[in-house]
Structure formats: structure tokens, C-alpha cells
Amino acid sequence: MSLLSWNCHGLGTPWAFQFLKEITLQKRPDFVFLCEIICKKKTVERLQRAIGFEGLFVVESHGHSGGVAFLWRNKEDVVLKSYSKNHVDTIIHMNNSNLFRVTGVYGEPDKSKRHETWELIRNLSINNNHPWVLIGDMNNVCSQDDKKGGRPYPVSLIQGFLLALDECSLMDLDLQGYQYTWERGVGTSDWIEVRLDLALVTSEFMNMFKDATLTNLEVSTSNHCPLLLEFYKAQQVILNRSFRFENAWLREPMCVSFRIGNGQEVDILNSPWLPSIEDPFVHSNNEAISKQKVASLFRIEWLQLVFEQVNKNDICIQCNSAASIGPVSYWPILPK
To answer: Which positions fall inside the Endonuclease/exonuclease/phosphatase domain (predicted)?
Structure first.
């Protein structure tokens, strides 16, 4: 059982829509929370049909910002508790398990109104009697360590946020993977990365789901990375597969280039580092990845059949393929 949370920054774009379809197929979440959908309900309904979910609730955006949506796989599993332009609050009941509470939150982006998000959390916590998780783009950090680059995060916003969490007995669930979920100015001197997307849980929630994990999926078509909250420990399957590049990938419109951790762009269509029979290694100026076999760059969990003519045993390089060796990460850039 799992939940996918993502600030998609506009679900109406074809690449965001396609990305969600593919990542839902791969990760198979039972619930999906989206914020900043910037679209009408009919667009989310089209996504609902595409991914085969039965349940849907949408708060439409007004103008060119905002909007939240909550989707769930089985209609009878979710009861809507409350909603606003910044949240969707639900009660979950699955497989005869005890009830628990899931709230998707889109924090107020205007710093001068950030206190409204804190008050929202306080109001939602009143008379809460269920294990509870709040997840989404909080637009706030818990410490200065959650921000890299630029000016220090305003201390008053950190203190105000932490005070609200303390009063509501909420704690920040540790993030697995890359520690920043939002970025701006990639590859420039103004490059900023911040951990804005969080999962906040009560002790009752952690007692109910002792093995719950929150993972940064580290690949996105927006400036926010999606989060995957897994309620139970996932079983790992280790497979030994060889890498083979398929020409069919070159026809994929979303497979254009990769971005290296230092901001360098690599054109996948005209790149000297693409593997060949004679040279199965990655060419890079970065010593951390030069001489690493290509097959080792791609984690098995991102295997997917994208084209019918591509063998299922092959590793697909596409918009939702990511790789990392130590601190070095690869993820694709979409065409502008």
C-alpha cells in the first residue's frame, strides 16, 4: 500500500500527464495527491480514466495557479472529511484494517501568508482520533539544512512551522534518497535546492505503520520531485539484466537529454557517451561516473516496456528513468 504525492505544476501539459501515467503504472500507488494542478476537473478525470482509479476529488484552480486533487484506486477505501483550496482531508479504510487519516496539503506559496498553512494544520488537528499523515508541498522547511544555495531560509518561518508541528504532535518523516525536492536556476550561480515536500506523521501513525518509508523519486517534469510514501516495507527483487540500447528509444519525444548533477546537459540523440557494443562505458568529465558500466547506472525498479518492439528485459532510457552513483544523479530534461 502506497501514496504518491506530487506538485505537478500544471497537469494540463502533455508531458506531466504522460509522466503521471507512467509513474503510476510503475509504482502502483493506491492513492495519489496532486497540488498546483492548474487545470479544470475534466483534465483530472481524464487522468483518472487513464490510470484506472475509481475515486476522485478535485478542487479546481483559479487562474494560473493552485488547485489540488486526490485520487484513489478503490472507491470504497476513502471517505472525504474536508477540503479547501489548500488541502484534501480523508479517512482511509482498506482490507479490514483500522481507520487512519491522510491529508494532502499544498502550503501557501506567499511567505506573508505562510501562517495560514500553520493555522490550517492546527485546525485539522482538533479532535483528531486517528493515526494521521499529512503529505504534500508544504512550502516550508524544518531547518536550514533543508535548503542549499541562496540566502538562508527566514528563521521566523522555520520557528513558526515547527511550533505548529509541535502543538499538533507531528513529526517530519525521514526522506530516503536525495534530500531536496524542489529546485530553481539549475546549472547557474543562482542554483537553489530546497526540501519543500514533506510527510508529517503522528506517533500513532508510526505505531500503525512501523516500516513506513518516504522516498524521493528524484525524477520529474516539474521543478518538484514526487514523493512515494510506502506504508509497509517493500520486498526487493534483485535481477541480473544486461544493458542493450534500442533505436526505438530515439523516437520517444520525452527522451531528449540527461542532466548531470553539476547542471551539464547531455543530448541523448547526439551524445558520445551513449553505449555501444565496442564501448559499454559512460564517458564523462566527472570522475565519479567515468568508467562505470552503463548497466550499473540504472536501477531495476525503473524497468518498463515503453514500446511493443522493446524487449521487456531491456532497461529503458526515458523520462522516468533515473540513476545515481554516489552523489551523482541523472534525470531527463524535457524539450522546451
So the answer is: 4-203
Q: How far apart are CA 103 and CA 88, in angstroms?
A: 6
Torsion-angle region of 269 (φ positive above 0: left; ψ -120 to 50: alpha; else: beta) = alpha
Taking alpha carbons only, the member of 224, 54, 196, 206 closest to residue 135 is 196
CA distance 56 to 274: 42
Contact (Cβ atoms closer than 8 angstroms) between residue 191 and residue 171: no
User: Which amino acid is residue 216, in one-letter code?
Assistant: N
For the chain, give percent helix, strand, coil, nearest 5. 25, 25, 50
Convert the pLDDT of each residue in 106-162 to its tens digit. 999 999 999 999 999 999 999 899 999 999 999 999 999 999 999 999 999 999 999
Assigned C-alpha cell, 112:
506573508
Residue type, 142: C
Pick from 319, 291, 330: which is nearest to 25 by CA? 319
> Bridge-partner residues for 137, per DSSP?
106, 197
Query: Backbone phi, then psi, for 160, in 5-degree steps?
Result: -65, -40
| pTM higher than 0.70 | yes
Residue of 178, 321, 201, 227 lying closest to 34 (CA atoms): 227
pLDDT (tens digit, 9 = 90+) per residue, 212-249?
A: 999 999 888 889 999 999 998 766 555 554 444 444 44
* Adjacent-strand bridge partners of 68: 35, 59
Residue 205 is given by DSSP the state: H
How far is CA 90 from each of CA 13, 74, 82, 239, 311, rounded to the nearest angstrom? 27, 14, 7, 38, 41
Task: Give the CA count within 13 Å in the CB-facing half-sphere of 36.
Answer: 22
Question: Which of 214, 207, 280 shows the shortest CA–CA distance to 242?
Answer: 280
Q: What cell numbers appear for 211 in the block?
A: 516500516
Q: CA 194, 197, 199: angle at the middle one, nearest 5? A: 135
Helices 114-125 and 155-167: crossing angle in degrees, nearest 10, is: 10
